[in-house]
Description:
The protein is α/β, with parallel strands linked by helices. It contains 14 helices and 14 strands. Strands 4, 5, 6, 7, 8, 9, 10, 11 and 13 form a nine-stranded mixed sheet that branches. The longest helix is centred in the N-terminal third of the chain and has 21 residues, at 106-126. It is globular. The relative contact order is 0.15.
Amino acid sequence: MKLSGPLFHGLGGDTGGCYSKLIVRVDTDAGIYGLGEVEDFMGVREAIAYITHYFTGRDPFQINAIVSETLFGTLPPHHAEAKFGRLPANTVACPTSSPTATPWGPVLWASSGIEMALCDLVGKALKTPVYNLLGGKFRDKVRIYVDRSAPADVKMPEAWRKMAVEAGEAGFTQIKFDIDYMATDEQGDVWNRSFSLKQINRIVDRLTVIRESIGLDFEISVDCHMQYNATDAIRLAQALAPFNLLWLEDPTPITNPRSCAEVRAKSPIAICVGEMFSAEQFRVFLDHQALDILHPDVLFCGGLHEARKIADYAELHHLPMAMHGNGGALATIAAAHVAAASRNFLSLEYHFMETPWIGEYVTRDAPLFKDGYVPLSDAPGLGVELNEKICEKYFASGETLF
């Protein structure tokens, strides 16, 4: 069985055009194919098109080798210069050179989606679920936490109450809110990475409503989106201590582990970091004692095998791993396979309650959610197929289905 290369097509946004996804399909000469998902960020389409050079004629079971070459190789094995005689015909990628590799960016993100598709393909070929490729499952269902940004009118206590209650009624037991959206009515200088006392007080007011609405047993987390300086992040963490939050996420820019370590040392709330990290960046932050909870995303860390590596590294440090989820249904299910196979898994994010098609563009033999969990199935691969009616409705720019 040989690979014939990755294809990608875009899913357009909701009626507001706010979201878009790319679906990656990897085909073989045996008629078996795999599906993956990537974010439609700048440069990702170009990266996938370039990575096509690494695929033709390859063995799909060489997942780690293919991904390593796309990230660290000098030349693809079938590079045009080798074909046309300007290089030796057996020229292959050099694993010791890394002209395109970066800790984050389009090459890593594209490789993540392609790796997801390869995992799906190999699972189908072996007639086994992907979680068995990752060491087997610890659990039959994967806990989801739902991310809610902010209501249209942040000043209305009832609007915050409604958002919280809706999550509970949908079966979720953990909810996350975005700190940078919670007090936009008191937003000062948007550039200086600081909180005003008014902002902090309004955030406290709104979290009070949320906690009172859903009770003491409901887990609440908050996300700072890497926006703030260490001093003000500490001030915020100390003000939020009475709410018994599960974590404070990305309080400072993620390029500086020392500032995050400073916040962690003085925060009464656990610090969760890592949605854009590869395994190497997690190593750096752990070396600096800059986090309590690791938070990888299969769309950004290098794929499912890399996420499992991160889970094991966290386990060796006796730390839990939550999973960020910026993707739609396909990425959520792929992450659930990693979560099922990771001993120290905590919860997996999903934040598109307001955009139904994000959860409907694939079909499977189990519901996407049930009582706040993703139920696992024993279907081969990722166990999903595209819902062609939904895909055709939302394909961007007049694109057609594969």
